[in-house]
Amino acid sequence: MLTTRITSEIRAALEDAARESGTSLSQEVELRLRDSLKREHKRPPDVLALAEAIAQVIEKIQQRTGRQWREDAWTGQAVRCGIDFLVGHFAAFGEAVTPPSVEKAAEKAAEEAAARGLPFIEEERDRSPAGVGEIEAAKVITMIEHFRGWPEAQLRHVVVWSKELYRYLQLLRDLGSGAERFETSIQMERRR
User: Do residues 28 and 17 make contact, with C-beta atoms less than 8 angstroms apart?
Assistant: First the structure.
């Protein structure tokens, strides 16, 4: 048992979060403490620093435009460009040489497709920084969007299933569904 004092504002925020996720206050506090400790030990300092720098870029762009990046296309484009510029500034410079692990993964994918009798078109993109970046981003997007449309009653059990899945659920709740925003924009475009 741990007894601690917190401000009424923090307690209210934790109670709101617990209510939203369908957990008790104690479970919410424990989950957040566990996530905090995991993040400290699993994420290298440069990754945490980049995440913070990206957050600052987004906040500054939103202050300048007066709009949210998820709700306004112009602001969203400014955020994409700002993040690209930020990462470009801090990333390594020089010739981009394909890492052996990327070459091996591309070869393995071709072998697995051939073994299953599936057509496989080997593309240079599978070995390019843009291709690898998109593939890994797509994996994260897939995990975040996984819970889209689930009934709230089922989502309450996600914490029990897996802490990692719970983190993706929290990302979906905080970011909203990009797929839903895309579908809405298509529907609005068709109505015009």
Answer: yes
